[in-house]
Every structure is written in C-alpha cells, then in structure tokens.
Amino acid sequence: MKRLLASFAFLALFLFFLVSCYYDNEEALYPTLNNTCDTTNVTYSATIAPILNNNCTGCHGGSIPSGGILLTNYTSVQTVASSGLLMNALKGNGVPLMPLSGSLSSCNLTQFQIWVRNGMLNN
Ligand code: HEC
C-alpha cells in the first residue's frame, strides 16, 4: 500500500512537472494566425475588396485615380497585382509605401499575399 502511494505520488509529481514545462503562446508562435485573422477563407469579394475600399479607393478611385492606379474593380486590381506592383506598394519595396498613412496590418498583408499566391482569383 505504501509503495502504491509512493508511486502514485511520483506519478503525480512527474505529471506536474511535465505540464508545468509546457508553455504555448499562440500569438508568439503564429503572429498572423490569431483568432481575428482569417487566413483560410481569403477571397476577392469578402477579403480583398473590403480592405481596398477601406484603405485605398479614397485615392485610387473616381475618374482621376492617384498614380493612375484604379483599385475599384477586379480587373484593374488583378492587373496591378499580377505585375507585382500591388505587393511592392503594400510593402514599400522600391515604390512609396501604400497606404500613404502607414502600412496595413500584418494580418491584411498576409491576406493579400495568400490571395496573390492562390492566383488572384475573382472569387
Ligand atoms: C491618401 C491617398 C492614397 C491612399 C489612401 C493610397 N494611395 Fe496608393 N498612391 C497614392 C499616390 C498619390 C500615388 C502616386 C505616388 C507616387 O508615385 O509618388 C500612389 C501610388 C500607388 C501605386 C503605384 C506605385 C508606383 O510607384 O507606381 C500603387 C500600386 C498604389 N498606390 C497602391 C495603393 C494601395 C494598394 C492602397 C491601399 C492599401 C493605396 N495605394 C492607398 C495615394 C494613395
């Protein structure tokens, strides 16, 4: 009986140390995969167009869009994206960083990257 108790105590202690060593911070491990960043259902209509409407079309819309870049319809967005210019502007790679007021969130940047990588679909 004493032996059983001792081994039980040992097991409990062992489990305690095992559990206490486990430290997992989701935000630190996956900075762009927290609950508020959807990286699995990235579509043009539900993800990309709303980001553009909120951050870009104020300047890149209308009849005289800034820099001659129109971002209000799929075809023009796809053209700017497939040339690489869209991602370069979003990262400030060799061209002025867009939006001018400061970079998009890392979540939105990841979503653009995913959309481009998946073939810039009109979905
Ligand atoms: C406050 C106005 C403003 C906003 C908001 C804005 N832009 Fe621009 N954008 C400009 C202007 C002005 C230019 C021309 C910049 C230049 O050549 O100096 C430009 C240029 C660009 C270019 C072409 C870059 C080049 O050098 O050819 C791209 C691509 C672009 N913007 C994308 C975006 C995207 C994507 C967003 C939103 C995430 C955005 N812009 C938001 C004003 C804006």
Task: Give the secondary structure arrangement, pairings included.
Layout: H1 2-20, H2 26-29, H3 44-55, H4 74-82, H5 85-91, H6 106-117
Helix pairs in contact: 3-6
Bound molecules: heme C.
Keywords, separated by commas or semicolons:
123 residues, mainly alpha, 6 helices, binds heme C
Q: Which small compounds were modeled alongside the protein?
A: heme C
How large, in whole angstroms, is the Cα Rg? 24 Å
For the biggest sheet, the summary is: none
Compressed to H and E, one letter per element, the order equals: HHHHHH
Low-confidence stretches: none
Helix content range: 40-55%
Mean pLDDT: 87
Brief rundown of the structure:
The protein has helices at residues 2-20, 26-29, 44-55, 74-82, 85-91, 106-117.
Give an overview of the whole structure.
Helices cover 51% and strands 0% of the residues. The chain is mainly alpha-helical and 123 residues long. The chain has a domain at 44-117. α3 packs across α6 (106-117). The protein is elongated, with a radius of gyration of 24 Å. Heme C is lined by residues 55-56, 58-60, 66-67, 69, 71, 80, 85-86, 89-90, 95-96, 98-100, 104.
